[in-house]
């Protein structure tokens, strides 16, 4: 099962190493990772996409909580918003292709962010599935390169990753 | 005041009395400051000896052990010992020098990424970048090492930080928002646990290394309920090894009674242990009749990690036992005890007497001669298991061994650390000929500080434990385990260090040998030349279950159906 996990951390040096090291060492399967600062100075938020069975996921959460600099871990099982950002450079040989690609761009509500003689860069945000389909749709035209970020996520409604909440840890 | 002095002052404020260490370039400013410090320093001959000694110091005393080393090679020599302390949940603070800040990352002389290397084998680590951070880092390090699930913490301090002028304050408040160990067990769960025990027909109490400090509460609770008690290798001594409620050690080389009790138990109360694979064997076949497993552990990650837990209790074993004790009632276990008693009397720990001197009888003789009143340390191997089996300790913090990592060579440095922590105690190191040779340079430390430790080498001329596996599982193909052709004369080796050496080769000299060791004034290295074909039994082969227990060597086989 695929899980999306948000982790609130103190943004100390190497905190990301601690997290990726933990995944490597314990053999957890990390599909994607995204990191960024938050509105609170000193705190960063990491979003992890992890696959595994319930037992593994329980361990992922508990082992993350053991890290001293981890303040909060949430597995987004509840309704949440999930987004990836993706840049795709496609080959466009002629006008016809350009138009076809434009159709796809519109259908996906992507944006054109670079136009060159024989190529376009398209930018798309959406959940992983949407990004996957976007890439598949463009594939026949000749994808030159793809760069996608890890997923970022946030719970819907008023629920937030609280800083002050006491975590159970060692 | 320089950073180095601030560091020592911060250590003093944490109550540090002893540092085990070895100097070198990048830690020299701190050694210079140490020259005027009231903190005692024990100079070891290899940093690994230092970290192991600090580990034993911590385990024997209940305080935090401290070790210090220089950058690069010095710090890297700590690696095995840090991993060992991590696996066996021992509070140690390691302080290492590093190259000056400006040189970090440049492959400078004796530079190593020590915080990187030790990340997975420490509970936490620090690279100090600002001299004024020293008091906060030290305070946090000691707090993290000693609280919750104990473990090693490393502080890496660049040389120029040690030399910089300190202008900060020592009055720091702990601020670790991501670190709040849960100490009190949930009252509802404690109630459920008591209820399950009351309804149980075949309950058992298993305790581990995380209950060493809870021995008094444990004894009271066991005596109140009448529960049979099983202690893991790390739990030995948490419950008296001479108590009628004690069934012995579980697992691979545990007693028949303990393993059968687990196999047949319907309710298991496990406190401060982590269901290591040496204890469970094949997990799917572990405790097949247990409908309720109650697991008390301070580390939530241990609960449900290995076995399915029905009643999880996150908390400190001592505090949880206190709560359990409040609701404890004498349980009606007469029928269960009749069964247990039958297994216990039918299958005591035993060995077939041979014409040669045998490890088991040597250890047993020391046990008899001391009344079990000693701190025991061991190497890793057959002799370690024999010590666990034939030297049942009766007091907590008195069986110091490497359980989780199984680090050969801890015996001698552990003895040093234990003796320094508790100088009034008799300290006995039961060591292997192989294990001892991994850290024997610390004999010099024994001499330097006149440490009265008794080192008993059970010399079987082999890497005996490996040989045993080759015997049983590799068709007696004894690949690279023979030592006797090149072992030193251990007694003469000791004498070269100025330590009394004793050699005992014949069965009939056993008593005399034991007395000579115990009556000797000062340290002794005693070599007991023991039978090389001995095997440790009972044995549950790796990945097996209680039903697969081999009670004696197949040549004299008698398997038990569980
Ligand atoms: C050659 C060899 C053979 C071995 N054979 C056996 C064998 O036959 N039988 C055996 O038992 N072992 C054996 N071992 C040892 C084994 O590998 C493990 O080290 C051992 O079983 C672990 O013991 P433990 O679970 O009690 O744990 P520890 O590793 O000491 O773990 C302690 C547990 O308690 C928790 N804890 C810590 N502090 C507290 C607290 N304050 N309150 C509550 N919980 C706390 C920790 O989170 C942890 O889960 C062998 C080792 C070697 C090297
Ligand atoms: C550092 C290290 N290397 C290798 C091993 C694997 N090992 C486990 S027991 C053992 C044999 C130990 O021999 P010895 O100390 O003579 O003890 P004996 O089994 O003979 O009593 C070995 C090599 C280990 N545990 N630790
Ligand atoms: Mg040997």
Notes on the structure:
Chain B: Its cofactor is Mg(2+); thiamine diphosphate. Chain B: It catalyses: 2 pyruvate + H(+) = (2S)-2-acetolactate + CO2. Chain B: One of its GO terms (molecular function) is acetolactate synthase activity. With 170 residues, chain A is an alpha+beta fold. Chain A has four helices and nine strands. In chain A, the strands form two sheets. In chain A, strands 5, 6, 7, 8 and 9 form a five-stranded antiparallel beta sheet that branches. A four-stranded antiparallel beta sheet of chain A has the order 2-3-1-4, with helices on one face. The longest helix of chain A has 13 residues, at 54-66. Chain A is elongated, with a radius of gyration of 19 Å. Chain A starts with a strand and ends in a 15-residue tail after the last strand. With 562 residues, chain B is an alpha/beta fold. In chain B, α22 (510-519) links the parallel β17 and β18 (524-529). The radius of gyration of chain B is 24 Å and the shape is globular. Classes of the chains: A alpha+beta (170), B alpha/beta (562). At the A-B interface, α1 and α2 of A face loops of B. The complex binds flavin-adenine dinucleotide (FAD), thiamine diphosphate and magnesium ion. The site of flavin-adenine dinucleotide (FAD) has 36 residues of chain B, from α12, β11 and α16.
**Strand residue content of chain B:** 15-25%
Estimate the helix proportion of chain A, in percent: 25-40%
Largest sheet of chain B: 6 strands, parallel
In N-to-C order, the SSE pattern of chain A is EHEEHEEHEEHEE
Structural class designation of chain B: alpha/beta
The residue fraction in helices of chain B comes out at: 25-40%
Number of helices of chain A: 4
Cofactors and ligands: flavin-adenine dinucleotide, thiamine diphosphate, magnesium ion
Protein chains sharing the most extensive interface: A-B, 28 and 24 residues
Q: What is the C-alpha radius of gyration of chain B, as a whole number of Å? A: 24 Å
- Global shape of chain A: elongated
Tell me the major beta sheet of chain A: 5 strands, antiparallel
Looking at the structure, what is the overall shape of chain B?
Answer: globular
Q: Structural class of the secondary structure composition of chain A?
A: alpha+beta
- Count of discrete alpha- or pi-helical segments spanning 4 or more residues of chain B: 22
Average of pLDDT of chain B: 97
Pathway (chain B): Amino-acid biosynthesis; L-valine biosynthesis; L-valine from pyruvate: step 1/4; Amino-acid biosynthesis; L-isoleucine biosynthesis; L-isoleucine from 2-oxobutanoate: step 1/4
Domain Thiamine pyrophosphate enzyme central (chain B): 190-324
Family (chain B): Belongs to the TPP enzyme family.
Domain Thiamine pyrophosphate enzyme N-terminal TPP-binding (chain B): 1-114
């Amino acid at each position: 099962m695929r899980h999306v996990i948000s982790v609130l951390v103190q943004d100390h040096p190497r905190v990301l190493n601690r997290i990726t090291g933990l995944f490597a060492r314990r053999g957890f399967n990390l599909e994607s990772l995204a990191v960024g600062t938050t509105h609170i100075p000193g705190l960063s938020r990491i979003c992890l996409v992890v696959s595994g069975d319930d037992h593994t996921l329980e361990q992922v959460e508990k082992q993350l909580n053991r890290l001293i600099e981890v303040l909060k871990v949430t597995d987004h099982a509840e309704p949440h918003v999930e987004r990836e950002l993706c840049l795709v450079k496609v080959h466009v040989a002629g006008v016809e292709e350009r138009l076809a690609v434009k159709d796809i761009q519109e259908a996906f509500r992507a944006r054109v962010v670079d136009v060159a003689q024989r190529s376009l860069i398209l930018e798309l945000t959406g959940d992983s599935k949407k990004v996957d389909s976007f890439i598949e749709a463009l594939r026949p035209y000749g994808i030159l390169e793809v760069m996608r970020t890890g997923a970022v996520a946030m719970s819907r409604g008023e629920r937030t990753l609280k800083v002050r909440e006491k975590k159970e840890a060692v | 005041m320089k950073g180095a002095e601030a560091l020592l002052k911060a250590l003093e404020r944490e109550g540090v009395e002893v540092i085990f260490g070895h100097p070198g370039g990048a830690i020299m400013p701190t050694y210079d400051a140490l020259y005027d410090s009231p903190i005692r320093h024990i100079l070891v001959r290899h940093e690994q000896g230092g970290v192991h000694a600090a580990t034993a110091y911590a385990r024997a005393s209940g305080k935090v052990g401290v070790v210090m080393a220089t950058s690069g090679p010095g710090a890297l020599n700590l690696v095995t010992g840090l991993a060992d302390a991590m696996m066996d949940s021992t509070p140690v603070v390691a302080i290492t020098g590093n190259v000056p800040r400006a040189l970090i990352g440049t492959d400078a002389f004796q530079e190593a990424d020590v915080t990187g290397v030790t990340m997975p084998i420490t509970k936490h680590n620090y690279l100090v970048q600002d001299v004024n951070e020293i008091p906060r880092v030290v305070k946090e390090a000691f707090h993290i090492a000693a609280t919750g699930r104990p473990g090693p913490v490393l502080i890496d301090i660049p040389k120029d930080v040690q030399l910089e002028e300190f202008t900060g304050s020592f009055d720091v408040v702990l601020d670790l928002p991501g670190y709040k160990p849960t100490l009190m067990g949930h009252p509802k769960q404690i109630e459920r646990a008591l209820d399950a025990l009351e309804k149980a027909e075949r309950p058992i109490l298993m305790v581990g290394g995380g209950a060493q400090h809870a021995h008094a509460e444990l004894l009271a609770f066991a005596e109140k309920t009448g529960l049979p008690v099983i202690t893991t290798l790390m739990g030995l001594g948490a419950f008296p090894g001479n108590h009628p409620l004690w069934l012995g050690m579980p697992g691979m080389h545990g007693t028949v009674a303990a393993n059968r009790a687990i196999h047949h138990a319907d309710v298991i109360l496990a406190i401060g242990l982590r269901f290591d694979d040496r204890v469970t064997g094949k997990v799917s076949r572990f405790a097949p009749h247990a409908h309720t497993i109650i697991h008390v552990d301070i580390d939530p990650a241990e609960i449900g990690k290995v076995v399915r837990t029905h009643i999880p209790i996150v908390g400190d074993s001592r505090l949880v036992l206190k709560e359990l004790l409040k609701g404890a009632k004498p349980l009606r276990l007469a029928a269960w005890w009749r069964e247990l008693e039958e297994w216990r009397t039918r299958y005591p720990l035993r060995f077939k007497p041979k014409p040669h001197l045998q490890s088991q009888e040597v250890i047993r003789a020391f046990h008899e001669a001391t009344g079990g009143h000693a701190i025991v340390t061991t190497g890793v191997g057959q002799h370690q298991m024999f010590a666990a089996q034939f030297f049942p300790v009766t007091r907590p913090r008195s069986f110091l061994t490497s359980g989780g990592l199984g680090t050969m060579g801890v015996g001698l440095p552990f003895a040093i650390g234990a003796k320094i922590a508790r100088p009034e105690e008799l300290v006995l190191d039961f060591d292997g000929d192989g294990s001892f040779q991994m850290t024997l340079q610390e004999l010099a430390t024994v001499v330097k500080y006149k440490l009265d430790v008794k080192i008993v080498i059970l010399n079987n001329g082999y890497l005996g434990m490996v040989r045993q596996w080759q015997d049983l599982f590799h068709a007696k193909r004894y690949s690279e385990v023979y030592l006797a052709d090149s072992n030193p004369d251990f007694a003469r080796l000791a004498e070269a260090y100025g330590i009394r050496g004793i050699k005992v080769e014949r069965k009939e000299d056993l008593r005399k040998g034991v007395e000579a060791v115990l009556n000797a004034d000062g340290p002794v290295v005693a070599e007991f030349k023991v039978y090389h074909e001995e095997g440790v039994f009972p044995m549950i082969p790796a990945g097996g279950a209680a039903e697969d227990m081999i009670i004696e060597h197949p040549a004299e086989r008698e398997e038990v159906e569980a």
